[in-house]
Amino acid sequence: MSQPRTGTPGDVEEIHWPSLVAAISSISAVGIAIGLGLPLLSIILEKRGISSTLIGLNTAMAGVAAMAAAPITTKLAHKYGVAPTMIWAVLISALSALGFYYAQDFWMWFPLRFAFHGATTTLFILSEFWINAASPPSKRGFVLGIYATVLSLGFAAGPLLFSILGSDGIFPFLIGAGAILLAAIPIYIARDESPVLEEKPELHFMRYVFLVPTATAAVFIFGAVEAGGLSLFPIFAVRAHFTESQAALLLTMMGVGNVIFQIPLGLLSDRIADKRPLLAGMALMGFIGSMMLPLLLDNWLLMAGLLLFWGGCVSGLYTVGLSHLGSRLTGSDLAAANAAFVFCYAMGTVAGPQAIGAAIDVAGNNGFAWAIAAFFGLYALLSGIRLMFIRKRA
């Protein structure tokens, strides 16, 4: 496969639609497969009599795999090309997704989880780098808003497919693997449009975590709140005397907010040269919303309205953080920083459920809201202090 030649990433003046369609559609197909696979695998393990602790341990391999894949993704893309690396990642993730059906021994699910989530992490890193590289600076937030919206719809379609297909037989696995394989088609068609990494990143991988700390810290908070919030919110809601169906609808409202706020927040970020105050503002709103959760437990409608708005603020940390990253870096540095970005997200998905779960055990049911508020509040405080120091030096 030929090495793509499109010039230096980050120098585009107009939206490069062939590249964007390839990157967005491919990663959305993967999103559908992940949204289908997560509940499917958990239900199957539950049917096999595997304990909740071991199911959680197996699921946690996703974060471990993401943290392992992030540092090497840029090196692979530099050596083999962005599009070829993505196609290999598609094949590995599709084969491992199908492998779950044939792996009868539980221990085999650990390397399969590692392969699946390691490969999908590579796809996320390179697709987001590709999108950032193909977006003009003046419209980057808008483009990333489209990406986040389509990806959110893909994740939402997965559980819907699961509700239709069920967990019996090979068919759900074939659908999941097929959705992933479909991702290779747009990547292959636009392979000559993918950005080129002609130079290796100048800094060690971990340096990129701290090179754009406002963005990487934002996505860490997003990962912690998303993973911990989504997994433990049903417990919080049911203990607060909502029914299971009411709790599920509240989660749905959060997901709706996730979808409808992405493009408006992206457009807003395009109008702001410095994205950091916007990130700090969303974290502050996330903090206020979290503290209000225990106060609205007697009113489902007010809780739903809050979660609609709150879901948009939470997801906006990812979209605007990614836009901030693209506004600061280009080329190989942007690709490496994108890997660091996803690495920090993975760290958040591991840390968030642990911290929020422990807070519930220690402080009771309201510990859920207080722990999430602590994540948001810490980010808002530190980013506010950082902004003051930057402005004083200027």
From TrEMBL:
GO terms for cellular component: plasma membrane. It is a multi-pass membrane protein. This is MFS transporter. Keywords: Cell membrane, Membrane, Transmembrane, Transmembrane helix, Transport. The chain crosses the membrane at residues 20-44, 50-70, 82-102, 114-131, 143-164, 170-189, 210-236, 248-267, 303-322, 334-356, 368-389. Its main location: membrane. PANTHER family: TRANSPORTER MFS SUPERFAMILY. One of its GO terms (molecular function) is transmembrane transporter activity. Residues 19-394 form the Major facilitator superfamily (MFS) profile domain. It is found in: Cell membrane. PROSITE patterns: MFS. InterPro entries: MFS (IPR011701), MFS_dom (IPR020846), MFS_trans_sf (IPR036259), MFS_YcaD-like (IPR047200).
